[in-house]
From TrEMBL:
GO molecular function, one term: ADP binding
Protein name, per record: Uncharacterized protein
GO cellular component: cytoplasm
Domain Disease resistance R13L4/SHOC-2-like LRR: 687-983
Annotated family: Belongs to the disease resistance NB-LRR family.
Annotated ranges, domain Late blight resistance protein R1A-like N-terminal: 32-127
Function: Confers resistance to late blight (Phytophthora infestans) races carrying the avirulence gene Avr1. Resistance proteins guard the plant against pathogens that contain an appropriate avirulence protein via an indirect interaction with this avirulence protein. That triggers a defense system including the hypersensitive response, which restricts the pathogen growth.
InterPro entries assigned: Apaf_helical (IPR042197), Disease_R_plants (IPR044974), LRR_dom_sf (IPR032675), LRR_R13L4/SHOC2-like (IPR055414), NB-ARC (IPR002182), P-loop_NTPase (IPR027417), R1A-like_N (IPR021929), WH-like_DNA-bd_sf (IPR036388)
Subcellular location per the Swiss-Prot or TrEMBL entry: Cytoplasm
Nucleotide-binding as UniProt keyword: yes
Biological process annotations from GO: defense response to virus; plant-type hypersensitive response
Disease resistance protein winged helix domain: residues covered: 549-620
Amino acid sequence: MDYILPDLLRKFNSLLLQLKEVSGGGSSAIRLADDHVLGFVDFLISKLVLLSTKSRFTDEVKVQLQTLADELRFIRSCLMDMLLQNPIQELESLNISIATLIVDAGFFVYFCPDKMEDEELTMTNYWSLGLHDSLETVQNVQQQAAGLFKKYLPLSLQSNCPSSNELEFVDFLINKLKEVMLSGEASIYPLKHQMEMVNQEMVTLRNCLSGVAELMGNSQIGFLLTRFKHAAYQAKYVLNSLMAGEGSLWLHKLGSFVITNDIKILQKEVKTTWKMNLDSGDGMQIKIEKDANKLVGRKDAVAEIVGLLTEGSSHLKILSIVGMPGLGKTTFATAVYKHPFVDTCFEVRAWGSLSQVYQKETLLSSILDQVHANPSHDISGEDVGQMLYQSLKRRRYLIVLDNIWDIETWSGLCSIFPDDENGSRILFTTRSHGVAAQANSFPYALRLLSREESCELLWLKLFNGETCPRELSRISKRIACSCKGLPLAVVLIAGALNRTKKEKDSWEKVARTFIRSQSIQEQIWDILDGSYKLLPDHLKPCFWYLGTFPRGTTISVSKLIRLWISEGFIHQPNSGQKSLIQEAESYLNDLIDRSLVLVTRKSSKGGVKECRVHDVLREFCSAILKQERYEMQEHIFPGGISVLYDTSLRKRVIFTDLSPIGRVYLTEQVPGTGSGITRQGRLHYGSVPKYKYLRVLDLANVLFRNSADTSDLVKIAELVYLRYLAIKIRTNRIPSEIGNLRNLETFHLSGAIGRVTLPEAVWKLVCLRDVIMDHCFFSFQHYSQEFFEDSTQLDNLKSLSTIYIWHGNVEKLTRMLPSVQKLGCIISNSWQECCEASNLFKLLECLRELRSLKMSFHVRAPYPFKFTFPSNLKKLTISNARLPWDEISVIGQLSNLEVLKLLSKAFEGQQWDMREGEFQKLKFLKLDSLDIVQWSASGEHLPCLEQLVVLSCQQLEEIPSCFGEISTLQLIELKCCSASAKDSVKQILDDQRDYGNHQLNVTVVGSQGGFP
């Protein structure tokens, strides 16, 4: 037993003896709500909670310990205070029952022996028996309280209950309780805490029933709904009589305890019914991911974790999923996170992904965006954590943290998540059992797949649920068994087999490449090696290049493709029908098809916007990079900067993995430690000119202290072989020396604010493909007349943003950019006074190759004028134009438009009436921060729409009902809109299901009311 001070020991002994006298029905001066008794109960609760974390107990005993602690806490807060204030004869029997409970729990917890004298009685058995007896006494207290409440409850409430729809009545009461709580009504103050508990449990049960009602037959939940309605009706009586000053206060408190307890019991029964349906497979069909292989061998495990998340202690509980790389921890956590029952049991959910080197502020901002209806993007540092804490306060939340590497990371995050004793949960994945233990989490060790499960997963990947051909059955089983139960290995082999003929001889050849008898880690390394060897030669450098990105990071596809091109990995097809970018995209899709690259985010056009590589694959790529292509050595500098350099005089390639300040690729052998990094972990631009064969310099993500000024850019301009330059700057003037970079293809600037002055020499760089400026812009306004007369066409320039368009130079600009495909621009205020404002759009219409256009207006767009765009335009983004909705018809008639984003004040006016024949090919529509109120459309509009996103359109009354008839619809996202708009989306979802579209994904955030 833990050490206890002698004085405290004597007090506890005396208390237990007196309480035993009370429990036996004898007379005693002590009352249950005496401060000493309450202190002893608090001690018991804390002792039980502490014991539930001890590793020596079985999981079953831990759950019993936590349950007893929760029940004692509930009785202490709801009943013992009532007994203190109302020492009346009617409550004496309840007083005795509670004394018995404290004595039973107190003696077996307080006087637990260090070892058992009876050898047949183990410590586990001692605790199991004691906990079982105490929990039985808890039930006696609950039953006695319920009996007392029923005894004094008016007979009309016991027999009469409204016959209206159960859930409608419950919704009415929940809203009424909420209104009363917010009103500050003085009459309910003595019972405010108890009624808040009633309301909280009612909301939780209401959400659970919403989630399972569509998944279970009405006959299964009808009885539960009726009981819920009765409990709600009793809560209504307590609330009304309390506000009217009728009845005894002790009866109201007793009633709140009984009602809350009844609702908790109903919650458990709903979950039990749900599990029975899940086990039988009758009625409920889990739709977590379209890809069926996500749950192979994990169905029971998912159900177990879902149960642990939604049941048990009201305190904040932490669960961890532990397993080796490639075991599918992220996939498993995703299945749990997206489970429909989990969705209904938590008020808010959020997902955060961590890398080995992660930015805490970035992670917290990402979570804040998911839980806050309208997060501020102006906060930073500790303010982000504080705002997240406040946003989670008093809300039942689930936070998933994917890939916690060390306990320091967890220690820096755990204080941000409040514990309001409302059933909130945190789930994280980790490779380390030590991290799981030190975080005081409930660890769940993810097991390997069985041989049968491995084979099932392989067949699903190869045949999409169809039966495996008989001639391939035996060899496929042999291949699946060779994976040693590791899902990643199965997926990788499936990726290789998918690229071969479905013939026995072909598969035998693949099997000989893969199958060896080694340890699991060696086995997966051999499988990766086999996958790499089967890659076509043109894909191999693209694959190992992924090892240059920091572990766990999300990779921008557009950036990756530019890097591939700059490194010379992409070759122009002989046919000439594809551009380099299109060819690079086909390379990436090939790697995705082979399961070597994972898609993390799709673009609005349906392509891949962001991707990542599994940590195991990333390590393999790094090994290939070091061992096969280069003989590399590593130097670690202060600040965590890791520099890998080539030691061979024959090879001149070196890359630098700068976790806190960016990545550098150098193409010259580095003598000693002359890496361009100072001993203080800061970038030193003075050494850059030494690397005269440098091709790629990527410093877009450096800290501000390492950003470049004008003099630094002059030094960089000496790298005449540079093809890719991405750099953060702290100057708004780019020196003319940049014009020396005659091989430059990508020029990416960030860090500056406002107008940046680009020298005329930049536009003499005929190899330029992409000029990108983040959060800043440039213009041609200050250029000389000679520049426009002498400048040649930039035939290779495909992407240009962000340019400030002044009315005096737009014609010359468009003449210079005949091949531009992606253009981002700001329309200057000079157009407001220009009588030929329509010329702007006429001239833009001349850009025949333009596919993507993003326009932001500094002032209201000049009106009236002819609003025209290039006919080949596929993506259009407009903001701040403040045009009337009538003008949108010109956009609607663009025959190739697939993506339309109307952002902040793009159009103004309360009514948008869509016209026949408009937007016939549109697949993605986004409305953000518009003042629209009514939106009318028919079933003939938007026939190809796949995704609808509506953000911060708070006056919009509803989404047109015709969206329920669009067969192609895949996603509706609604954020910060009205409750009526939310209701209309619910109706659209119901209509889509009636039409058989069960794949529609609906997300509603920040609207009034929940969404089932």
